[in-house]
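Appendix B, record 7
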Amino acid sequence: MKPDVKKLVILNLPYLIFVYLFGKCWQAYRLAAGADLSGKLLHFAGGFTAAFADPVVASGYRTAKKQRELMDDKVDSFLAQGYSRSEAKSEAKKWVADVGYSEHQTGLAVDINADGVNSSGQQVYAWLADNAWKYGFILRYPEDKTEITKTDYEPWHYRYVGKEAAKEIYESGLCLEEYIGMMN
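Structure tokens (predicted):
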């Protein structure tokens, strides 16, 4: 199987809108002309809410300023644990992307968690792992692909790639890096 680059959604710019999911304002999302991601997210949310009453959207689109704050906070948390500055930065990069490298800055990534009352993290993550691809989303950092993605397992982090690419990635068991690598 050689993936078709035309099936893969890479970037989602330049229009900002507000997406309403689960009865709450979700996040500002960047939308590409002709690729209305808000509709895709709403469709995804519909499937999700049929299974769970109140998931928590922990993060969507992020500004560079917000991304820097998250990185700085993560570095500070490792410094407080006794890590050196270089060790803290190295450990932080396993969990938070540097400014300009976060998929959240593209408007194509979303972090979804359980509300802790109507559903548990395990229930939510299991549903996402089994169903997200049907809506064009993939688990971005699978547990068995950390050596390839260079990011620790994040069962809450999903990225929109389009339905066809998501299906191929899901069925093949590849991560995004492997899938893109097959395009060459």
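Remarks on this record: Confidence is low (pLDDT under 50) at residues 10-36. The beta strands are 14-21, 24-32, 56-59, 109-113, 137-139, 157-160.
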